[in-house]
Amino acid sequence: MIPIQRLALPEAVTARMTVLTERIGLRDTASGARKKYADNLWNDEADVKRGLREVLLKMAPGVLGCCMYCGGFTATDIEHFEPREHDALKSFFWPNHLLACGPCNSTYKRDWWGCDEKTGEPLLLDPTQDDPFDHLLLNLREGEYRGETDKGRTTINVLALNLPERRLVAGRKLARLNIRTVLREWGRARQLEDAEAERDALDVLKGQPFADVWQAMLRQAVLPGAALIMSDEPPEIFSLLRNEELRAATLIRFPLEPTPTEGA
């Protein structure tokens, strides 16, 4: 999981969602009428969902539009971060929408929802609001996540980020090997002053699935004790990870810059 910049929706989509939210708010909650009405609207509003999906795909990591949770598979589902089962009024609330793969959305998270008893903060990471690297530590050698906070640990468990059957761990380990190959290509291109080859290598680094592996490598390479933490990295790879030009071109920093509102 990496930080995701939330883009602005077209004004027409925003306006329509505001109207729909107002309509949902008029329905009674105790009788279940609000939830049922919201579900019907969600099923019927194809144009709104099309507009949401277009913007969410722009936000999603990599050229394949990867899942905003696991980062490993193509995202197919518009996901309600806070499930409609918990708050139907957020069915058309833009900050509540993410793009997820089928397994993350339908198999693991489903309608799970939990908040910290003291702060009321959600216990699941929202990559558009949280910096995942404040809560998750990726063991690059093993390809597994460790939770550094309650939110991080809950996210790992709910989304099964380390479950062998999901093949995410194997995917992260393979991504690391691929990154080493591309880094070497970038280093050679830089020595040869081959600007086109440099750009091609950067595009691969920024566009591949498992973007969290690349971002974790960049971050861990400059931590105190980095040489020990990343002792299994070949020396040339470790040196390239600390290259300021490369870091400036590919490191995603949090908080992310806001974007202007799009026109209709």
**Distance N to C terminus:** 31 Å
> In sequence order, what are the helices and strands, one letter per element?
HHHEEHEEHHHHHHH
Residue runs with pLDDT of under 50 for 5 or more positions: none
Overall geometry: elongated
Rounded mean pLDDT is: 94
| Major sheet details | 2 strands, antiparallel
* Order of strands, widest sheet: 1-2
Overall number of strands: 4
Find the structural class using helix and strand composition.
mainly alpha
**Portion of residues in helices?**
40-55%
* Tally of separate helices: 11
Q: Strand fraction band?
A: 5-15%
Gyration radius, rounded? 20 Å
Brief digest:
By secondary structure, the protein is mostly helical. The chain has helices at 11-25, 33-44, 46-59, 102-109, 150-159, 168-191, 195-207, 211-220, 226-229, 235-241, 244-250, and strands spanning 77-80, 97-100, 136-139, 144-147.
Describe this structure as you would to a colleague.
- The protein has 264 residues and is mainly alpha-helical.
- Helix content is 47%, strand content 6%.
- The chain is built from eleven helices and four strands.
- The strands form two sheets. A two-stranded antiparallel ribbon has the order 1-2. Strands 3-4 form a two-stranded antiparallel ribbon.
- The mean pLDDT is 94.
Features:
two-stranded antiparallel ribbon, 6% strand, 11 helices, mainly alpha, 264 residues
Topology:
Elements: H1 11-25, H2 33-44, H3 46-59, E1 77-80, E2 97-100, H4 102-109, E3 136-139, E4 144-147, H5 150-159, H6 168-191, H7 195-207, H8 211-220, H9 226-229, H10 235-241, H11 244-250
Antiparallel strand pairs: 1-2, 3-4
Helix pairs in contact: 6-7, 6-10
